[in-house]
Task: inverse folding
């Protein structure tokens, strides 16, 4: 798995994965052009999409409706150094029984990103000083 990040105009960055692009920016009040989510918002969006995938699998396997299912992902910033100190995922799943709610929670807890945050990976940081390689995109 790989994502290439390039600096854009002002505070913008562009993330490229396979043939997909996402623009990240800062809000106007933080010097950006507000043309995309901030990095923490993108992280929460990724967590929510991952959790939704697992929730949808659970509901689909039980022939339960997905039409009105929504997830709200929230975070509290704090600590020294600054970081996200608490992340919440709230699932809105109308018509799900109490027994199914427990299964739905277990399904969301199985999300790859949730498990990754519970058992953080090593992060290696390096610097390359040669000219950047061009990203080769293939549709084959």
Result:
């Amino acid at each position: 798995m790989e994502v290439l990040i390039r600096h854009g105009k002002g505070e913008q960055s562009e993330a490229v994965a396979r043939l997909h692009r996402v623009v990240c920016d800062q809000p106007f009040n933080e010097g950006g052009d507000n043309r995309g989510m901030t990095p923490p918002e993108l992280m929460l969006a990724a967590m929510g999409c991952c959790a939704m995938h697992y929730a949808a699998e659970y509901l689909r396997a039980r022939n339960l409706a997905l039409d009105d299912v929504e997830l709200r992902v929230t975070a509290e910033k704090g600590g020294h150094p600054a970081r996200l100190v608490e992340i919440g995922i709230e699932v809105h799943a109308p018509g799900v029984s109490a027994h199914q709610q427990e299964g739905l929670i277990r399904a969301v807890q199985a999300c790859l990103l949730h498990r990754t945050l519970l058992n953080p990976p090593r992060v290696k940081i390096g610097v390359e000083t040669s000219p950047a390689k061009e990203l080769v995109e293939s549709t084959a």
